[in-house]
């Protein structure tokens, strides 16, 4: 740990913002018996009531909301795909510029600050929080989906392209289809999502550790809004952050419950359906509550490290017993394919592959952006003492390469099973089941599938745990040591929102809400990026 006990007190030179605002000055402090509350009256009340109202209305009008969610997701991704793709490109460019400019020498926490966590602990926490459940759910299913659609070629009806293949497809060419499928998958899991997280995290860390402002989203906007950031403009920013985080997390929890249920059905014959998924959400949310009560170091950190060990073991197992040579060469081939196709994949206008650009990419970018208040604040909290250059390189490049490796191992294995072994069952299985179907023809299938279920569950717990800690900080006006009952409230409601969305339309409903809350927060994040660069320019450099 760093020598400085209070992370809000800088070590060395900084350029703090002079404001009369005190953290928690607008909070309401209430004691009910042994329980206490310390909440920002407007942010907590409005976001909390909005979430409660959403859960109740979705549960009451289940049959009516399903088509509403479906049409909402379709309209947003089809009409605004160019906006999401352009925004993500901007975040990547900002990160790359920061690496290569003198602004990269600014140190978070002051010129003499030292890191709070080792590289091993730091990487495991940011990676587990960042995209754990997604890697488990999409590690096999996404490369296989893009491969299959690309291999199937282009289909046109009434002059409109109806296939879901990326770019120009690869009709009948298995090698090209695999290359294009892996490039498209890596595009969704490498630089762009981590740039989204890095921009948010860097802004939060800078304005909290260097500028002396509360660790909350509104603080990043001080260079633009000035003292007005403590009024309604700031309230709206923080409310949007709470809602985006909650629905982004609920989407991931829904994916996790769907996959865990499929795995339990495959291994033990437990019936599939909403009931199993809801029981899983309730059970895992209860475990997450225990982790929340244990706190950041005892809860999230320990679970993240356990999960990283299990993930590495599963990864190593598949490399050894799978198509080892294809995986080894595929890592570099896939990385090259990604870089080759990147300009076309990141092009926001004039796309012929409209289904892929809107149905896959636009949804992904909105989903990552809805996660960025949560992941950004979590990364900020554990990144004090790093220089901006070290921070960007670590947060952007290291996890991106890890994602390339993960997708290569699981995607290449599944595609090899289809192309070279004729094992079509893996391609024909439902998305949540494809990981288990792929493992089924490898040795020790029962054991590895059980480990995969544990991974999904623990990723689920760390995401819920980390998310509730972060939402509570925002809703407590930036206080990082707010009373425990508040974290229990948010952790519980993450589970309730996931249940409401499962009942109100399943994965389509989950995706619709992630995109809906991601849209306004994309605008917030674009403005925050400008403000963050402006704040960095005024900081002393080591």
**Low-pLDDT segments:** none
Structural class, by secondary structure, is: mainly alpha
Number of strands: 4
Report the span from N to C terminus: 21 Å
> Strand-residue fraction?
under 5%
- Sheet bearing the most strands, described? 2 strands, antiparallel
Give me the strand/helix succession. EEHHHHEEHHHHHHHHHHHHHH
Query: Which strand order do you get reading across the main beta sheet?
Result: 1-2
Number of helices: 18
- Oligomeric status: single chain
Tell me the helix content.
over 70%
Describe this structure in words.
By secondary structure, this protein is mainly α. Helix content is 72%, strand content 3%. The strands form two sheets. It has a two-stranded antiparallel sheet with strand order 1-2. Strands 3-4 form a two-stranded antiparallel ribbon. It is globular and about 70 Å long. The mean pLDDT is 87.
Summary tags:
542 residues; mainly alpha; 18 helices; 72% helix; 3% strand
Brief write-up:
By secondary structure, the chain is mainly alpha-helical. The protein has helices spanning 41-60, 62-79, 81-100, 119-152, 174-189, 191-210, 222-225, 232-268, 274-294, 296-321, 324-345, 354-381, 388-419, 425-428, 434-440, 445-475, 484-503, 506-537; strands at residues 27-32, 35-40, 156-157, 160-161.
How would the blueprint of this fold be written?
Layout: E1 27-32, E2 35-40, H1 41-60, H2 62-79, H3 81-100, H4 119-152, E3 156-157, E4 160-161, H5 174-189, H6 191-210, H7 222-225, H8 232-268, H9 274-294, H10 296-321, H11 324-345, H12 354-381, H13 388-419, H14 425-428, H15 434-440, H16 445-475, H17 484-503, H18 506-537
Antiparallel strand pairs: 1-2, 3-4
Helix pairs in contact: 1-8, 1-17, 2-12, 2-18, 3-6, 3-12, 3-13, 3-18, 4-5, 4-8, 4-10, 4-12, 4-13, 4-16, 5-11, 5-13, 6-12, 6-13, 6-18, 8-9, 8-12, 8-16, 8-17, 8-18, 9-10, 9-16, 9-17, 10-16, 11-13, 12-16, 12-18, 15-16, 16-17, 17-18
């Amino acid at each position: 740990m760093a020598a400085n006990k209070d992370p809000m007190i800088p070590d060395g030179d900084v350029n703090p913002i002079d404001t009369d605002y005190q953290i928690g000055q607008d909070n309401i402090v209430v004691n009910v018996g042994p329980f206490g509350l310390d909440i920002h009256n407007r942010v907590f009340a409005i976001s909390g009531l909005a979430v409660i109202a959403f859960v109740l209305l979705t549960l009451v009008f289940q049959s009516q909301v399903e088509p509403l969610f479906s049409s909402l997701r379709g309209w947003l991704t089809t009409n605004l795909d160019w906006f999401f793709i352009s925004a993500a490109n901007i975040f990547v460019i900002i990160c790359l510029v920061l690496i290569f400019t003198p602004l990269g020498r600014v140190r978070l926490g002051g010129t003499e600050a030292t890191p709070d966590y080792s590289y091993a602990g730091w990487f495991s926490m940011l990676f587990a929080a960042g995209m754990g459940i997604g890697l488990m759910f999409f590690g096999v299913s996404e490369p296989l989906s893009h491969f299959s659609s690309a291999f199937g070629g282009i289909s046109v009806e009434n002059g409109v392209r109806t296939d879901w293949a990326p770019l120009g497809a690869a009709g009948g060419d298995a090698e090209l289809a695999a290359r294009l499928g892996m490039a498209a998958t890596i595009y969704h899991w490498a630089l762009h999502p981590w740039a989204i997280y890095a921009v948010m995290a860097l802004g939060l860390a800078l304005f909290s550790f260097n500028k002396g402002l509360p660790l909350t989203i509104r603080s990043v906007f001080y260079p633009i809004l000035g003292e007005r950031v403590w009024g309604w403009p700031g309230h709206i920013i923080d409310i949007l952050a709470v809602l985006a985080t909650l629905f982004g997390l609920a989407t991931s929890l829904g994916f996790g419950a769907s996959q865990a249920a499929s795995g339990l059905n495959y291994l033990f014959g437990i019936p599939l359906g909403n009931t199993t998924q809801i029981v899983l959400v309730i059970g895992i949310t209860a475990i997450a509550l225990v982790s929340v009560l244990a706190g950041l170091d005892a809860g999230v950190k320990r679970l993240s490290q356990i999960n990283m060990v299990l993930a590495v073991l599963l990864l190593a197992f598949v490399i050894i017993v799978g198509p080892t040579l294809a995986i080894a060469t595929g890592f570099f081939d896939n990385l090259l394919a990604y870089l080759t196709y990147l300009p076309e994949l990141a092009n926001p206008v004039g796309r012929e592959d409209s289904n892929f650009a809107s149905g896959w990419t636009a949804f992904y970018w909105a989903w990552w952006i809805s996660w960025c208040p949560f992941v950004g604040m979590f990364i900020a909290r554990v990144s004090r003492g790093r220089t901006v250059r070290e921070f960007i390189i670590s947060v952007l490049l290291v996890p991106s390469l890890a994602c390339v490796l993960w997708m290569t191992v699981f995607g290449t294995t599944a595609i090899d099973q289809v192309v070279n072994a004729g094992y079509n069952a893996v391609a024909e299985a439902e998305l949540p089941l494809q990981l288990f179907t792929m493992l089924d023809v490898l040795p020790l299938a029962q054991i590895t599938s059980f480990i995969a279920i544990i991974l999904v569950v623990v990723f689920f717990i760390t995401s819920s745990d980390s998310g509730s800690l972060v939402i509570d900080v925002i809703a407590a006006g930036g206080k990082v040591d707010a009373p425990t009952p508040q974290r229990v409230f948010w952790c519980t409601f993450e589970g309730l929102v996931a249940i409401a969305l499962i009942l109100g339309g399943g994965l389509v409903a989950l995706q619709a809400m992630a995109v809906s809350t991601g849209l306004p927060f994309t605008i917030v994040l674009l403005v925050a990026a400008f403000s963050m660069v402006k704040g960095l320019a005024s900081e002393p450099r080591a």
